[in-house]
Design brief:
single chain
Amino acid sequence: MPLALWALTLSAFAIGTTEFVIVGLIPTIAASLGVSIPSAGLLVSLYALGVAIGAPILTALTGRVPRKQLLLGLMALFTIGNLVAWMAPGYFALMAARVLTGLAHGVFFSIGSTIATSLVSKEKAASAIALMFTGLTVALVTGVPLGTWIGQSFGWQSTFLAVSLLGVIAFIGSWFLVPSTIAMSPPASLMTQLAVLRKPRLLLVYAMTTLGYGGTFIAFTYLAPILQEVSGFSASKVSLVMLVYGVSVAFGNIWGGKLADKKGPIKALQIVFALLAAVLLLLTFTASNMWLALGTVLLWGAFAFGNVPGLQVYVVQRAERDAPQAVDVASGLNIAAFNVGIALGAWGGGLIVAHVGLMATPWIGAIVVVGALGLTTLAGWLDRRDGLVHVAGTSRAVAAH
């Protein structure tokens, strides 16, 4: 694989770290800035909202910008956003920094696959995309726990400084290694994207995605407070639990892809959503015991992102039938739906913490995931009614960002 691809992978690692590291730092940030836990949780929502807006809208607006220039601009924006977070004098400045970095995130992954495939021969395209997205998986396994530890040991601002340094390295790597002659596909206009949103069956898939991820993030956003206040973990041990979670996510993502390949997306999603809802419900009863909570978090990671391959395969299958002229747009909008789910889940979780209590987040999250299971079952029924047979698809294990 060319060295330029490793520059993209490092960029993905930095972006994945800054997205999820905030989860382990929520109690630290809340105490430092003098805000409530739900207010700190909004930092997750605002980032995801930036991704959801940035992916479709800014990708369309920057469709004619040369790819290398756009890539460098995005990494510069990402680095500036993290530097603003590092120097943020207060809560609202940190909120603005999170939105800024989220915008860069959304466009990066919209164009990243195109750049990656342009760097290699056609038969290596899938491997190139998989390698780039490996940066996200590695971020969950190493970047998030390490960033959590840095933030708890040296102050949460230090985490954003460290991530901004990664952004600088990725910028330099892309400057020297990514060629200037990258082929550009015709840009998808906002009207094309709006046309996709008029397809009821694609809207059903986006609703499945939003509820599936939203249910998870109702509880996941507030995992660190649960671990510290209910399970009894010290702040320094939370980073180790995040490491366990990240390793489990890596295996779960691969498992989810193989399951979708074997059983087809609908059946695989039904299995994953059912298991995910069960684990979230289980956390309600195990959180008060340190070791049982650790085991439940390990199970949770295995299922939390296992729905990604099935959802991505299914949206492509539906788009090929309902909007064949805009398959890439339909797939990109599903990425936006993932982040809408994260934003709504983190926001809703904050309301639950404020008005019901911290330990209501797992079981309410489970109910929302059951909603995703119901929509998935409805989608399968509609497909059978239309005479469609679900077959296994190519479900590569990549994170949906």
